[in-house]
Amino acid sequence: MLKQDVDFAVYRKNTPTKDGYFGTYGGAYIPEQLVSEFEKIATAYQTICQSSKFISELRRIRKEFQGRPTPTSHCERLSNSIGNCQIYFKREDLNHTGAHKLNHCMGEALLAKYLGKKKIIAETGAGQHGVALATAAAYFGMECDIYMGDVDILKQAPNVARMKLLGARVVPVHHGLKTLKEAVDAAFEAYIGEFDEAMYCIGSVVGPHPFPLMVRDFQAIVGIEAREQFLDMTGNLPDAIVACLGGGSNAAGILTPFLNDPVKLYGVEPMGIGTKVGEHAASMAYGTEGIMHGFNSIMLQNSKGEPDPVYSVASGLDYPSVGPEHAYLRDLGRVTYTSATDDEAIDAFFITSKLEGIIPALESAHAIAYAMKLAKEMETGSILVNCSGRGDKDLDFVLEHYGDRLGK
Question: Which residue among the candidates 85, 100, 105, 293 is catalytic per the annotation?
Fold first, then answer.
C-alpha cells in the first residue's frame, strides 16, 4: 500500500522536478565552477531527448551495434529445481560488452559529442561501466579515462584488459578502501579540471542532476522490452520483478516501466558477510539521509556524515549510497528493497551456471538468489529477474576463492 498517492501513469514524465528532485532526494550539490556546466548538460539532454534525429540515431546504435533487443528467457530447469513458480531472466548479459551498462554509455557519449566534448571520464567498480564507456569512446572516436580502485583492478583483471584494448586509460586509485566510492571521488576530482573538454559519464542513477534522470531514461529500454516480451511469451505480466541494487541503474531500467502495473517490484542489496559497518553495502537497510557525490539520498555514514566503509563480493555493488529515485520509491512504498548475502549470491552463481547454462555476474547473482527464495515463498506464479550482466569477469575470482563449491 502506497504511503502517499502518486499517479504512476504519468510518473516518469513528471519525476524528477526540473531541479532534479525525487521528493526530497536528488538535486545537484556541486562546486560553483561546475554549476553552469551541469546546467548545459541538463539543457542539452532535455533538447536532444525530444529530437527525432537523436532518438533515431540511438535506436540505430542499439539495433546495429548493441544487438538489442536482448531476449527474455524462461529458466525452466532452475524453476523446477525450486517448485512450481516460474523464473524468467531478462538477458542483459547478452547486450554488447556483457551487461546493461552500454545502454546509458552510448547515450551519454552521444550527448557528449553533441556538446562538443573530446573526452569522456568515468569511474568503475566491477569494470562493466568502464568497458561500456571505453567501447562508446572507441565507437565515437573520443578519448576516455576510467578511474578504478586498486582492489577492483585485481578482482576484475579481464575487464581492465578490455578497457585498455579498447583504447581507454585506466587510472588506478590508491587511497581509502580502493574500491568504487574512491574511484568516484577520483574521477569527479579529475573532471573539475577538465570539464571544458570532457564530460563525466556517471555509471549509475546517482550523482548530481541530470544524471539520475538521464541514466534512468537510457536504461528504461530494458523494462520496455521485457514488458512486451513477457506479454508475448505468456499473455500476462510477471507477478514479481527482481533486480540487484548498488547505485541502481539496472534496477531503475527494468523496474520503472512497470510502476503503473499490478506487479510487485524488488531491489536486492548486498548484505555481504554481516551486519556490522564494513561488512555489507546495504544502504537502504542501514543508511540514513545524507549528501555524497553531489546528490542527496540514503547513504551509509558515520556520526560526522562521512561515508562508511562498505563491502560486497560483487565489485559493482559496493557503494555506500543509492540512487535518489530508489530512495523515493521506497518512501512511496512502490518498490520493496531487500538483500542477499555473499554466500547466497555465490550459490546462485553456481546453480544458475549448472542448471541454465548462464553464468551470471556476481551482481546479478544477488537478484537471482533473492528470486529463488521468493519463488519458494510464492509457490506459484512468475518472477522476472534482470540478469544484468554475465560472469566472465568474475570467473577467476570465484574459482580462486570459492572453487570448493564447484560440482556441488
Answer: 100
